[in-house]
Amino acid sequence: MGNEAAEKTEEATERRRQKERERGNVSKSKDMDAALVMTACIGLIAIFGKNMMNTIKSMMIETFAHLNPTELNVDNVMGVLFPYFQYLGYIVLPFFVLLVIFTIFIIRFDVGHVFSLEKIKFNLENLSPRRMMNNAKRIFNPFEPRTMVEFAKSILKILIVGACGYSAISSRKADLMGLVGLETPLAIHIILSIMVNMIINMCLAMLVLGYIDKKYQNYEYEKSIKMTKQEVKDEQKDTEGDPKIKARIRSIQMQMARQRMMSSVPSADVVVTNPTHYSVAIKYDKTKAPAPIVVAKGVDYLAFQIREIAKENGVPIVENRPVARALYNNVPIDGVIPSDLYVAVAEILAFVYKQKNSEN
User: Would you state the pLDDT for residue 4?
Assistant: First the structure.
């Protein structure tokens, strides 16, 4: 297995990445998500907190100011308090709705658009005793490499975040020591200020750790989806086709095109030759093209076959080396001859037509 892992030296292809996303295997950082969600939660509290506390305070004052203990009993206590719980729900609900929306956007930002049925598909193999034992070993085995790494990361995160929070408190020791004897509102204001500094420091630490963890998760993900050279070759065969099969298909296509070309030679008006190496069959039909077209061409053995078919079908053969070379090199099959060859080809066709008329 070590040799197999060592062979995975090739970067994952786009197709491999797409398949992994379809399976739900993406790079994701729980630390980054947790840090962003915590930051969003604190931000929402900062925005709505004061209004929420004032509303709750007014509601509680209104509730207990008009509450008559003699009217309360086991039967109607919930009926008396339900309107206030409902009112409290109206206050808190927008906060949680916005938090859920922020959480969805944060997860989408981390992993992108991913919807995989394989992640939620029920698999009986997961309930097999062997699979469950292996999972239990991975979870509870303290010497399992991944477990040790995650444990070390957790301890390190707690120490760093705790140290950042403690630094905010230690920098305000003088204010804490001076709380003795202060009026309650002023003391609460100082305590809240220290707590705000502590939360900000801890959030910043979590964001930095989340960013580092995201980079680490990206590295681990890229390493996990690397491919062997053979896997890359197999994928290219799947996407582009086996080179041998493609070569065979091209060969068949060329053979069919050659047969179709040869079938056009009997209808040609003339075959211009080199005389041995090049052969070009020309046909002129003014109802189909404004100028003569090349219906077949070839060199060496193919040129010989064109001449033989022309002889068998009584197609005139004219030797003209420069015209034959020019037509072969510049005009494709079923292509119209260029204007600079009009005169030369016209002279050849005129000679052929004159010769046919004299024979008739």
Answer: 47
DSSP H or E run through 118: none
271 forms beta bridges with 281, 317
Locate 259 and state its tokens: 């047969």
Give alpha helix (H) positions in the chain: 2-7, 14-22, 30-65, 77-111, 129-140, 145-170, 173-177, 184-224, 229-240, 243-262, 301-312, 321-330, 342-359
Distance from C-alpha of 99 to C-alpha of 92, rounded to nearest angstrom: 11
Q: At what angle do helices 77-111 and 30-65 cross, to 10 degrees?
A: 160
The pTM is what? Answer: 0.52
DSSP state of 337: P
Residue-wise DSSP of 174-233:
HHHHTTTT--HHHHHHHHHHHHHHHHHHHHHHHHHHHHHHHHHHHHHHHHHT-B-HHHHH
Which domains does the chain possess? 2-235 (no CATH), 264-359 (3.40.1690.10)
Give per-residue pLDDT as tens, 25-64: 788 888 888 888 888 888 888 887 777 777 777 777 766 6
Q: Please tell me the distance from the alpha carbon of residue 284 to that of residue 322, in angstroms, as a whole number.
A: 20
Q: Tokens for 184?
A: 């309650």
- 3-class SS of residue 296: strand
Q: What is the DSSP string of 5-22?
A: HHH--BPPPHHHHHHHHH
Low-confidence ranges of the chain (pLDDT < 70): 1-6, 62-83, 112-147, 238-245, 358-360
Q: C-alpha angle with apex 127: 123 to 130, nearest 5 degrees? A: 120
The residue behind tokens 């209004």 is 51
Q: What is the pLDDT of residue 148?
A: 74
What pLDDT is stored for residue 5 in this prediction?
46
